[in-house]
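User: Hand in any protein.

Assistant:
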Amino acid sequence: MTSALFPCPPLAPLLRVEIRELTSLSVLSVLVLPTTEYPVHDIPLSHSMYRTMFQIAKLPQIPSIRIWRPYRVTSERGAETEVVHFRGISDARGRLMVLMTHNTDIADAWEREGEDRDYFQHFSPDGYAVGINVLLYTMAH
């Protein structure tokens, strides 16, 4: 089943999910991966993915560049979105197949390199550290 869903199994898709979208994602994932066999779970900071190359001590909250430029805040909706979550779906052997990030626009850390020097310098070190760790972890597992 894994090879049919993910033709390139070592690469876990990265998804950024908002609160209102989390329900939709959960409903859609049930259509593909039954929750009885593939439940969505939190990925704690003790997970080895956070230590693959860089030591991740805190999940970075990276705002959308559209929020950062005018407001210079990291939580896009104040208290409602101030806690970052990394969640995943693993196979029967515990290998991470899907990684979902919530309340962080982690991909903007490496997508916005040429758009805003301040944004890039502020968020890219943590964003790249997470991205590289995820890539190395998925390739090794």
